Amino acid sequence: MKWNVIRIAAVAACTLGSAAASAQSVEVMHWWTSGGEGAAIGVLKKDLESRGIQWIDMAVSGGGGEAAMTALRARAVAGNPPTSAQFLGMAVVDWANEDFLSDLTEVATKENWDRSIPPALQRFAKFKGKYVAVPVNIHRPHWLWMNARIFNDNGLRPPTTWDEFNATADKLKAKGILPLAMGGQPFQEATAWESVVLGLGGPDFYRKAVIEADPASMKSATMLKVFDQMRKLRGYVDRNFAGRDWNLATSMVIKGDAAMQLMGDWVKGELIAAKGTPGKEVLCIVAPGTQGSFLFNTDFFAMFKVGGNRRAMQLTMASAVMNPTFQETFNLAKGSIPARSDVPMDKFDACGKQSAADLKAATAANHVYGSLAHGHAQPAAMQRAYLDVITKHFNSDMSSKDAAEALAKAVVAAR
Ligand code: BGC
Fold first, then answer.
1. 3-class secondary structure, 261
2. How far, in Å, CA of 400 to CA of 109, rounded?
3. From the CA of 299, how far away is ligand 1's center (Å)?
4. E strands, 271-371, where?
5. What is the pairing mode between strands 84-87 and 25-30?
6. Across residues 270-297, what is the average pLDDT?
7. For 255-272, what is the mean pLDDT?
8. Who's near 377: CB < 8 A, 6+ residues apart?
9. Which of 245, 250, 374, 376 to mutate to test the pocket of ligand 1 (most atoms within 8 A of CB)?
10. pTM of the predicted protein model
11. 299 touches ligand 1 (CB under 6 Å)
12. Dihedrals phi, psi of 125, to nearest 5 degrees
């Protein structure tokens, strides 16, 4: 009730427009602040500037975008939203539901987006049959990154099962090499957790436990194994992991201060920004046991109902983001693959090519699912219920049984 009143006032104030943004500019909120992310957003900024549109940057750092969403909410409630913002899929649906987003169908129809955007992404880009967001990429969050030199020097092979992963990590630990670079932040722990769920349980278990939030699967023997594996991972990270940003963990792997990282392919953006070649100094393989499935998260840009002649800029920006050449250049820097299904992959590195081929195969096998950690499996409140338990378990001595029970309870309560 209270929220509705605030929202109506906010929408009314929106039509006055933000003080910062003029008719020839777009103010864009995003959370792309690491080296690779900065390079990718730079591609968009340059593209828009070449069209005579000034870029007003509103970056809020914090992987996974939690902090950005909080800041965005504050601006929107105050009646001063940016022209456009970066969203993960479920957030698009939430904000569209609250009637904040502007209709892009006019440009979508003209450019026939239906033909080039895969149905799995249209599910988030469209609200009640109308386009309200533009997808810029397809990220895959379940990868394992490995320092090639450490693996070569120690005669190790990339692990393809969780048992192999543990054996590899134990060997490294015995030699005094830090096995796993990680940052203690809920989205990082959840990124690892969903890889373990998929890797140990398989796609049907992921569907039940994550997409359907089925309490019985939370209490299953498989879920106990998942939390056992998370406890093992906790033993492979260093003491200073709490609060470390994901990109700092990545640089530990690049420098050889740690052997591996479990993280999405935005890691590749860091490698490229550091003048490395993904698959060379740092090797990529899908997280153990997850071969054949594809979890995804997509970054969308949605436009706020700001009114006035800023709408023309918004339609131009939407069209620019969907441009095939732009999608190629942007995704080469970002580490993801294009959201459009008609962009050639020949300029992409081996990990990117693998991602595109795996997506095709997983789509045919019906094993493509949204990422929980990255806003494509559950709405915010339910996602929070999962993340709270995952984080609490990882950062305490909670038993697997207690964690599984807590998860089943939290999920029922969040329904
Ligand atoms: C976003 C990526 C971003 C990553 C780390 C994910 O949720 O989809 O674009 O690079 O978070 O910030």
1. strand
2. 50
3. 8
4. 282-286, 294-296, 300-303, 337-338, 368-370
5. parallel
6. 97
7. 98
8. 90, 210, 211, 369, 370, 371, 383
9. 374
10. 0.94
11. yes
12. -75, -25
